[in-house]
Amino acid sequence: MTWLFKNVTLVDRSFPSTSGKVDILISEGIIRKIGVDLIASDAKVIVMDDLHVSIGWMDLGASHGDPGEEHRESLSSLRATAAAGGFTALAPWPDTYPRVDNKAAIHYLTQSNEQEAVEIFPIASLSEKGEGKEMAELMDLHKAGAIGFSDGLKPVDNAGLFYRALKYMNGFAGICIHFPMDFNLAVDGQIHEGRISALLGLPGIPDVAEDLMIQRDLSLLDYADGKLLLWGLSSKVGVDRLQKSEKLNQSLFAAVPIFNLVFSEDDLESFDVNFKLMPPLRTENDKMALKSAVLDGTIQLISSNHLPWESEHKKLEFPYASFGSISLQQIFQMLRTHFSELPLINLVDILAYNPRRIFKVEIPVIQEGAKANLTFFLPNAKTVILKNDNTSLSENSPLWNETMNGKVVGVFNNGKLVLNDEVLYSDF
Amino acid sequence: MPIDKEAQLSTKSLLGIKDLTKQDLRLIFQTTEQFKEVLNRPIKKVPSLRDLTIANLFFENSTRTRISFELAEKRLSADVVNFSAASSSLKKGETLLDTVNNILSMKVDMVVMRHPAPGACVFLANHINVPIINAGDGTHEHPTQALLDAFSIQERLGDLSGKKIAIIGDILHSRVALSNILCLKKLGAEVEVCGPPTLIPNYISSLGVSVSYSLENTLKWCDAANVLRIQLERQNTRYFPSLREYATYFGVNKQVLSKVNKDLIILHPGPINRGVEITSEVADSPNAIILDQVENGVAVRMAVLYLLASKG
Which residues are paired to B79 by β-bridges? Predict the structure, then answer.
């Protein structure tokens, strides 16, 4: 199959922003030609106003339920959701049933990568069975294809285990991904401890619970000399703490969940369970600090924190509802609507280059002869977020019926074009 | 009933004081006064809610609030059904929504609910159509308690604008405290919370109250003191070393009142831990209006039921 994308704006650091619009000809999954006024008689032609392209995006930190809870999110629905959101690569959490703590589980996740537009790069469990007591077989998991190690949304309380894991991973330059939160300071915590928790009478999760764990992690990073990605930054104190570390951007990296970047505790005033998130939404001040940290490079990654739940887990009294919302399909729209000060080129750095650079995953390139691994988007179009367009198996989202800026057109990878709207192309 | 038929509450349900306007509060208090007069007649029953069926759903233990609501409903001639479950419906395997929808299928017109989860009434209001009265939802709100407290203080002190009201004790685990703060502030009163620091929520001052750790100073400052119950049943952790130490430093007793040396009004939402947060001498003294609160509770709840029903 041959495709010709007409008048496309490239968002890529290897092309100067003044280079104007180009045509891209792709056949058999390879970029054959980049130029102006290209013609190919056998190609399907895609022409859209304001069409932009970058290398395919990669997400860290989506949850799914395959195997074990496929009704929440199966691998195929996760892939469909990622593609609809503009992602061609995923590094999901290991907390499935059974868990990703053995190489068979790694193979299960990666076995169809070459046939799919969305490839999975597994994060493996840091501890055996995710119990936070002993290390999983980290070397074996690394050899099998795990790109990082984490207990996901469950912080590693045991400092000894955390230290040993960090140190052990030096043997193969592995990276530990840790959610810094000391839940001893947030017993029964439901939302950020602040004005809204006082007003709603809900037990709070203070920002010091994050800061304290970051301090421990940074001390142990110095001691073990490993490589660490702190996932789930949610507070200004956390950002301030990171900025003091000399290891930042060397062996220390940070990721902020998308929701924490665009919403705040103020959105919880009416007990909306879809804003019940972990890490919790904090104050406007925290949100602004996180945005600044993304802009100045203190934070290198924006994570989906995509957490699908069936309605039985969400349609409940607030304290009984599970934490989390789906987000993978709307990250681009959330950024374009609520973080428009982030330039497109930086957005692509954060969504596409940085995760691959940090996890040492091969970075796709846009050049003639290279494999096409691309995301197509309209940065200035409007999208109405409709349940009808939802590709996830779960519906726990606070965004339904919102009109948002930005639209993802589709992705191209491994010879497959996945378009959000099938009527967009035609034979010319 | 000589009640202004035109006046209406701004809300369909009473989920919390935070949803009410100052006009709403005035309307509720005016209506309460009229029902209080009814309650002092030889025949205490009026036909206002005849043909209406009200379900009292208590997912948490209650004696006085449940009886107070039931009496208020019966004195308005409503038909009443009661549902009590010591634990939450979730733990029994049925969701709250299923439980309530089952009861509503039997043609119930209004729901009064107490529930251990903060926000449970807000949640219910998002999914069902009948008016809901919050009879206490976890550590969130207990609006009718705040209304009857404010009404009882007003009976003694008049207009609450500029009056100084203290709330003393376990603020952290108290829905009464939160509703009282919101109600008293809307009525123009100054509010101070007092207790051991671990029982005062961080950020409580964002609600516009002052914070004190000295019982004596607070009692010297205030015109009325609402002494809260120590909610031992809601404490998974020890927030203070012992009941003896609490009673010594935060218990309202004759000795500390004699140091204050002024005619304070003392309230308590009940049930009292005698000898812990308040001594019997004080609870049974003329300054204490604890039984007035209970009496006014029925009238306040009649007013709320009547006003919400008249909206439907």
Answer: B53
Please name every residue paired with A55 in a beta bridge, in sequence order, or none if there are none: A374
Contacting residues of A for B88, CB less than 8 Å apart: 317, 320
* Angstrom distance (rounded) from CA B164 to CA B183: 13
> pLDDT at residue B207 above 80?
yes
Distance from C-alpha of A295 to C-alpha of A316, rounded to nearest angstrom: 37
**Whole-number percent of chain B with pLDDT over 70:** 94
pLDDT tens readout for residues A373-383: 999 999 999 99
CB atoms within 10 A of CB A341: 10
* Beta strand ranges found along A92-188 (DSSP E): 119-120, 123-125, 148-150, 176-178
- Six-digit token string for A220: 């142990």
Chain centroid, CA B174 distance in Å = 10
Yes or no: say if A345 and A2 are a contact pair by the CB < 8 Å rule.
no
Say if the Cβ atoms of A199 and B18 lie within 8 Å: yes
* SS3 state of residue A204: strand
Q: What share of chain B is helix, strand, coil (3-state, %, to 5)?
A: 45, 15, 40
Three-class SS string for B204-243?
Answer: HHHHCCEEECCHHHHHHHCCEEEECCCCHHHCCCCCCCCH
Alpha-carbon distance of A366 to A352, in angstroms, equals 13
CA distance A220 to B160: 57
Angle formed at CA A322 by CA A235 and CA A94, multiple of 5 degrees: 75
Which portions of chain A are predicted below pLDDT 70?
A: 423-428
Q: How confident is the model at residue B233 (pLDDT cuts 50, 70, 90)?
A: low
Supply the mean pLDDT for chain B. 93
3-state secondary structure of A368: coil
pLDDT at position B90:
53
CB B129, CB B150: distance < 8 Å: no
CA B156 distance to own-chain centroid: 18
H or E element: which one contains B36?
helix B22-39
pLDDT at residue B4 in the model: 58
Q: Which of B162, B8, B209 has its CA nearest to residue A198?
A: B209
The answer to whether residues A350 and A331 touch, using CB atoms and an 8 Å cutoff, is no
**A207, A265, A270, A271: which to substitute to probe chain B, counting the most B Cβ within 10 Å?**
A271
Contacts of A190 in chain B (CB under 8 A): 118
Count interface pairs A-B at CB distance under 8 A.
76
Is B114 labeled as catalytic in the residue annotation?
Answer: yes
Q: Which pLDDT does position A425 carry in this prediction?
A: 62
B127 a catalytic residue: no
B7 confidence band (pLDDT: 50, 70, 90): confident
Q: What interface predicted TM-score (ipTM) does this complex get?
A: 0.90
Cβ <8 Å between B206 and A198: yes
Helices B22-39, B143-157: axis angle to 10 degrees equals 80
Provide the pLDDT for residue B6.
72
Give the Å distances, CA to CA, from A121 to A137, A141, A249: 17, 12, 22
